[in-house]
């Protein structure tokens, strides 16, 4: 895979890397719609488990034409760090799906996408050269303010009696998502090939998610509606396969905190996808929210002075 510009671990992202992370954020935003559509055909945790199974089968096929290798994964500590990342990966989805069921979607998204703050704090303490500067902290705050504005209408909607528990579970899910990213940068996984980093997470998470599904009371049913199956295949092949492979490739080369900040765009793209594909209404302050997110990301990605 060609390198779209290379930065030092904690340096500003080059234009090529920004272009790739923008594309990934758009793909992940569309995935928010795909999860809704696929849920009509299969329960969410079962969906996540089957997604990991199919993606694990597809990743080696994707790597071959790209010239990517699984690398020397027998290096000390790499396999165990990969297994730990896979367990965290599975727990993240379990907590998130339980949390979304207890709170509103808007609140769940806002708490989940607190993840860039956790990444910034984790890399500040554990990854040399990826420090939390004042500009980065200010940029994260402004971008997150834009996210709050984008979901303002949903946040004002009444929430159920279990909303606080759901909020905390979504917050924990975001923290685990961040923990996976920090672990890749701060553990022996930083020496591993991106293909291995993804594959081990898929292989470890698949049985854990499939086991969790019946334990959470999900019925193992699959309704073969074409739209639901198509949405599921999008999640497995495009998101969990190709896009996650590109994500870990970026993380191996660039600042994790700067990359994670761009994930705030994912729910913004998700709102746009919902409006275009599902006819959902855009909030009154959506355009201003996009402007705030853009300003925040510009501040995050400014070169350190």
TrEMBL record:
Residues 18-151, 165-301 form the EamA domain. The chain crosses the membrane at residues 12-33, 45-66, 78-102, 108-126, 138-157, 196-215, 227-247, 259-278, 284-300. Keywords: Membrane, Transmembrane, Transmembrane helix. It is a multi-pass membrane protein. Its main location: membrane. Pfam families: EamA. It is found in: Membrane. Coiled coil: none annotated. Belongs to the EamA transporter family. This is EamA domain-containing protein. It comes from Paracraurococcus ruber.
């Amino acid at each position: 895979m060609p390198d779209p510009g290379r930065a030092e671990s904690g340096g500003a992202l080059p234009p090529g890397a920004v272009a790739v992370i923008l594309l990934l954020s758009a793909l992940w935003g569309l995935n928010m719609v795909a999860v809704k559509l696929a849920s009509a055909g299969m329960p969410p945790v079962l969906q996540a488990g089957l997604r990991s199974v199919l993606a694990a089968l597809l990743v080696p096929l994707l790597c071959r034409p790209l010239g990517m290798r699984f690398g020397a994964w027998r290096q000390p500590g790499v396999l165990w760090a990969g297994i730990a990342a896979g367990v965290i990966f599975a727990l993240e989805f379990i907590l998130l799906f339980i949390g979304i069921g207890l709170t509103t979607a808007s609140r769940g998204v806002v708490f989940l996408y607190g993840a860039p703050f956790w990444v910034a704090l984790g890399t500040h303490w554990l990854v040399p050269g990826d420090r939390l500067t004042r500009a980065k902290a200010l940029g994260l705050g402004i971008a997150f303010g834009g996210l709050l504005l984008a979901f303002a209408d949903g946040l004002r909607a009444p929430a159920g009696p279990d909303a606080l528990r759901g909020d905390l579970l979504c917050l924990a899910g975001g923290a685990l998502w961040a923990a996976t990213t920090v672990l890749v940068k701060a553990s022996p996984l930083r020496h591993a090939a991106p293909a291995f980093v993804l594959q081990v997470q898929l292989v470890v998470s698949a049985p854990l998610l499939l086991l969790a599904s019946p334990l959470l009371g999900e019925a193992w049913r699959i309704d073969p509606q074409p739209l639901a199956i198509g949405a599921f295949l999008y999640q497995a092949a495009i998101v969990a396969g190709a896009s996650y492979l590109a994500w870990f490739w970026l993380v191996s080369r660039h600042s994790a905190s700067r990359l994670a900040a761009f994930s705030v765009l994912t729910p913004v793209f998700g709102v746009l996808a919902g409006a275009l594909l599902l006819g959902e209404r855009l909030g009154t302050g959506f355009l201003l929210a996009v402007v705030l997110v853009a300003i925040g990301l510009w501040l995050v990605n400014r070169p350190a002075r």
